[in-house]
Design goal:
This protein is of the alpha/beta class. The protein folds into 4 domains: about 130 residues, Beta Barrel (OB fold (Dihydrolipoamide Acetyltransferase, E2P)); about 40 residues, no CATH class; about 270 residues, inorganic pyrophosphatase (n-terminal core), CATH 3.90.1640; about 100 residues, Diaminopimelate Epimerase, Chain A, domain 1, CATH 3.10.310. About 40% of the residues lie in helices and about 20% in strands. The strands form 4 sheets. It has a 5-stranded parallel sheet with strand order 3-2-4-5-6, sandwiched between helices. Keywords: Exonuclease, Hydrolase, Nuclease. GO terms for molecular function: exonuclease activity. Belongs to the RecJ family.
């Protein structure tokens, strides 16, 4: 565990260099294990996450009581909460203008649910069409909403929409957002956004739904100060958890508590939309953070990507089980359609990016007619494959509309916003990990060259695209359900807090067989009585599956993540195998 490759693996079966914990992290983990008595594997994860030994127990049990920030630390908070309550008391007509992704849909559903519990009139939900209207408020929509409503609340959008909000002249507009702000704010009664330029940045990691939740916390405080009582906000944390994970918000600070508590709420199966969606995908256990990001989130997003933009928000907000089932089934069909469209764009984008070169600070691709609903997902795939910020653009006529995804430590949103200020983009914005942009076709090459230059200044492109980071070594016999539960207590894992990944060294391969078209099931045997079942998803899409299937009795180091496999009412530990290397 010095400066070399972990277990001397410079190139695994998938071509990756294995990176283990550095000496400082290893010493930190060892000291924590001695001081706390926690399992060494858990201490290795906590040390990598930067948790001090005396803070370990508190970190493993995050609570909102300890971590929830004072809502009033955000500018315009009291104005926004007071205006919302005034609208409820006056039974005013409220419109909610939301973004078409999970964060926007969950933010809208949060407000709709809260207003219902406050016995306020049902608000109007407006979500723009991704293709016809694009992201964020637009002047025609705002003009129409202003004509029929007393208050317009923009969620997960609006911070950069100066002209559109000006079109709502005569109607109060409140913006609840988290996207990067410009030097000037739009003409709104209140803009609550931790990423305003005049904010401290301490809460910059919040997603829009978390910002909405803080507004509701502040509204509850106003109610209590007046001798009243608001709804139980803890029951709404399932929506905040879903949005936090699906929007790839860093899982640190209060975000960890939001997700942990939200998953507990979700396990009660009280929200018809999430119950119907979980049943539609045959989820036979309470959701974990993984399911929010990779199972439920993509389906809620499918309406905004290739179907009707408001389907996801309607699913999350409905109280009707029959409507929830119908919406969940429709979103499942749209998700299948999205997958087919995505596969075609992904293949073309990857080929183009490889031709251009994937060692640069920015990996990008642009294609004629690429569906704007999938360019963000394809950008995520390119980012994952290359460990570089990625931008994918669909060209149509004289313009291209694209989406980008970033890697840890590189602020893509700020760079895209600077490009817009410099005139290389028609418009652009976002946050640290994701951004959207519109570019003139004839400025495409110049814009991407400049973006690559800006990202290089932040260190993009310096880490190896093939590095596989590992927390240490485990033996198969140590992989017990109890250990997996202890490891999960260090979660939830996701953006900014990658999940534990261990190596099982010098194991024999038993019972290896192909499952489906691309997966591999196998059993690990350390020769000392320890055995562990494993599965490698997509193993036959690359060299991993063929090599392990034809092992010929050779022994391997096997790397991956542990989880609990639920099958037939029983639980067992399973390794999600990600990589392997011959045991020298």
């Amino acid at each position: 565990m010095t400066g070399g490759a972990f277990l001397d693996i410079e190139a695994s079966l998938t071509g990756r260099r294995w990176i283990g914990p550095g000496p400082q992290v290893a010493r930190h983990a060892e000291a924590m294990a001695q001081e706390t008595g926690l399992p060494p594997a858990l201490c290795a994860v906590l040390a990598r996450l930067g948790v001090a030994p005396d803070a370990a127990e508190g970190y493993l049990s995050p609570t909102l009581r300890d971590l929830l920030p004072d809502p009033r630390s955000l500018r315009d908070m009291q104005t926004a909460a007071a205006r919302l309550l005034a609208a409820v008391r006056g039974r005013e007509r409220i419109a909610i203008f939301a973004d078409y992704d999970v964060d926007g849909g969950a933010s809208a559903a949060l407000l709709i649910d809260w207003l219902r519990r406050m016995q306020a009139p049902s608000p109007t939900l407006y979500i723009p069409d991704r293709i016809d209207e694009g992201y964020g408020p637009n002047a025609p929509a705002m003009t129409a909403l202003a004509a029929d409503h007393d208050l317009i609340i923009c969620v997960d959008c609006g911070t950069l929409s100066h002209d559109a909000l000006a079109a709502a002249d005569g109607t109060d507009v409140v913006v609840l957002d988290h996207h990067l702000g410009a030097e000037t704010l739009p003409p709104a009664l209140a803009v609550v956004n931790p990423n305003r330029q005049d904010e401290s940045g301490d809460l910059a990691h919040l997603c829009a739904a978390a910002v909405v939740f803080l507004v509701l916390v502040e509204a509850g405080r106003h109610l209590r100060e007046g001798g009243g009582q608001g709804p139980d906000l803890m029951a709404l944390l399932d929506l905040v958890a879903l949005a936090t994970v699906a929007d790839v918000a860093p899982l640190k600070g209060v975000n960890r508590a939001f997700v942990r508590q939200g998953l507990t709420v979700m396990a009660r199966r009280a929200r018809p939309g999430l119950v119907a969606l979980g049943d539609a995908v045959r989820l036979d256990r309470p959701p974990a953070a993984y399911h929010l990001g990779f199972v439920l989130g993509p389906r809620i997003n499918a309406g905004g990507r290739v179907g009707q933009a408001d389907l996801g928000a309607r699913l999350l907000a409905t109280q009707d089980s029959a409507e929830a089932c119908a919406l969940a089934e429709r979103l499942e069909r749209l998700n299948e359609e999205r997958r087919e469209i995505e596969a075609a764009v992904r293949g073309a984008a990857l080929a183009q990016a490889e031709t251009r070169g994937v060692e640069a600070p920015l990996v990008w691709a642009a294609g004629e007619g690429w569906h704007p609903g999938v360019v963000g997902i394809v950008a995520s795939r390119l980012k994952e494959l290359t460990n570089r910020p990625a931008v994918v653009i669909g060209l149509d006529g004289a313009e291209g509309k694209g989406s980008g995804r970033s890697v840890s430590g590189v602020d893509l949103g700020a760079a895209v916003q600077r490009l817009a200020r410099e005139g290389l983009l028609l418009k652009g914005g976002g946050h640290r990990m994701a951004a959207g942009l519109t570019v003139a076709r004839d400025r495409l090459e110049a814009a991407m060259a400049r973006l690559s230059e800006l990202l290089a200044r932040q260190g993009a492109g310096t880490s190896g695209p093939a590095d596989l980071r590992l927390d240490g070594v485990l033996m198969p016999g140590a992989a017990t359900p109890d250990l997996v539960e202890r490891l999960e207590a260090a979660g939830p894992f996701g953006a900014g807090a990658p999940g534990p990944r261990f190596v099982f060294p010098d194991c024999a391969i038993g019972h290896a067989r192909a499952v489906g078209e691309t997966h591999l099931k196998l059993r690990l045997d350390d020769g000392l009585g320890g055995r562990l079942d494993g599965i490698a998803f997509g193993a036959f899409d690359g060299p991993l599956g063929p090599a392990l299937l034809a092992h010929g009795g050779a022994r391997f180091h096997l790397a991956g993540r542990l989880d609990i496999n639920h099958w037939g009412g029983r639980q067992s530990v399973q390794l999600r195998l990600e990589d392997a290397a011959p045991a020298g």
